[in-house]
Design goal:
Blueprint: H1 5-20, H2 38-54, H3 59-69, H4 72-78, H5 83-97, H6 99-104, H7 120-125, E1 130-131, E2 134-136, E3 139-141, H8 147-155, E4 173-174, E5 182-183, E6 190-191
Antiparallel strand pairs: 1-6, 2-3, 4-5
Length: about 190
């Protein structure tokens, strides 16, 4: 969920790890199959999904920027996203999954929340019920929301750890929601 405070906190914890292990891991951003944070979240989830599909090499830079203030337009311009191509993907994805239509049709909602079904198969497969959820090598894992803890989780899965795994990252927990800084709180999540 692009607007879930706990989900954004988890993203801020994993981004330094992905930067460190760039070509050593395969990362996919996927979405819980429902929305809890309104129309803004629907639009942002759709934007991030399409950016991952259209220009995946720009996704991490976009997320790093977006998580600072939650302002997409400036971030898209900063990293030079092809906005026409992105808009075309958003329109096609919206039509394929009936995202806006279902958002407006409360009869399609489950447990009081509108569906966001682009990653539904993976949600079912990995028993995802909320944000954040981390899946490594097809296994759902519990995570502490700080870069060092996430790095250790990922590095433990290598049969032969890359040198980068010796690098110490911050053990501080990023603030939940948008913004920079650290927090002493890392718990909870957004779930039905």
């Amino acid at each position: 969920m692009s607007y879930c405070p706990a989900g954004t906190q988890a993203e801020k914890a994993i981004l330094p790890v992905l930067d460190l292990l760039r070509d050593k891991v395969s990362f996919e951003l996927k979405f819980v199959d429902y929305l809890m944070h309104g129309q803004d979240e629907l639009g942002e989830n759709l934007r991030q999904y399409c950016l991952a599909q259209q220009e995946p090499e720009k996704l991490l830079n976009y997320l790093t920027c977006f998580l600072k203030e939650g302002k997409a337009s400036g971030c898209l311009a900063t990293i030079k996203v092809d906005t026409a191509k992105l808009a075309s993907c958003e329109k096609a994805t919206d039509a394929k999954f009936n995202l806006n239509k279902n958002f407006k049709d409360e009869g399609s909602w489950s447990n009081g929340y509108p569906p966001f079904s682009v990653s539904s198969e993976d949600n079912v497969k990995h028993e995802v019920s909320g944000s954040p959820t981390l899946v490594i090598n097809e296994t759902k894992v519990a995570m502490a929301r700080n870069p060092e803890a996430v790095k250790q989780l990922i590095c433990e899965t290598f049969t032969q750890q890359p040198e980068e795994c010796k690098t110490k990252l911050s053990a501080e927990t990023p603030v939940a929601g948008f913004g920079e800084g650290t927090s002493t709180q890392a718990g909870g999540g957004c779930s039905q």
